Amino acid sequence: MLSRLTRLPRPTALAVCAAPVLGLFAVAALAPLPFVVAVPGPTADVLGSDQGKPVITVTGAPVRDTKGQLRMTTIRATGPSSTMKLPELIGHWFKTDQAVMPRESVYPSGGSDQQIEEHNLEEMAQSQSAAAAAALGFLKKDPKDIKVQLNLADVGGPSAGLLFTLGIVDKLDGDGSGGELTGGRSIAGTGTITADGTVGAVGGVGLKTQAARRDGATVFLVPKAECSDAKSDLPEGLRLIPVTSLTDAVSSLRALNRNEDVPSC
User: pLDDT digit string (tens) for 191-204?
Assistant: First the structure.
């Protein structure tokens, strides 16, 4: 004899099915999630001073007095050990001056807060070394004769590499053959740098453009691969120039000073 399947009345079946789903939503709402909230951070003029000391100090070669500004940009994010729950994240998601980002995109090294800080400072030191090598190579100057010291407190990570490099080039190209890079403007930007002058992507460019415009910049150098991100919430009055190399950046800035055509995102 065949057994009979018992069918639950429809309202009861729906209630039975919905219960575990609602339970999952409740757990998700209460569980800490691997995201951080980032906001535009401070900017710093690499042609200027930080805490009373020049950001760029050159020995072994003459330097020129520079005009304008070259501003490196940063973001500030909630700490790597902080936790956020879904209702909190939703509150930040739709704010244009904030970004909800995966924790690993901001803190890719992982580890404790102290380990991450040490990693970021190490990356900054490597970035500064690469910036000096890229600038001296671009200018065809002997690193045995010229020493470059970079000083910028309370900033970690590699994303200031491009701006450090441009600052060194601007100070060292003292014979005037190439012309000043800023043309008296406030130029901002972001991007990693390698010793051969390759510019790399960094993340958080939408927030960095906001920081740049807030602090008076009118031009922003962005790694070409991140043009679309930079354009998404571009502040009014800020011009984007895409770059893939140090040569790109220098050529574009000099063309801008001559009122020539300059690449755009």
Answer: 999 999 999 999 89
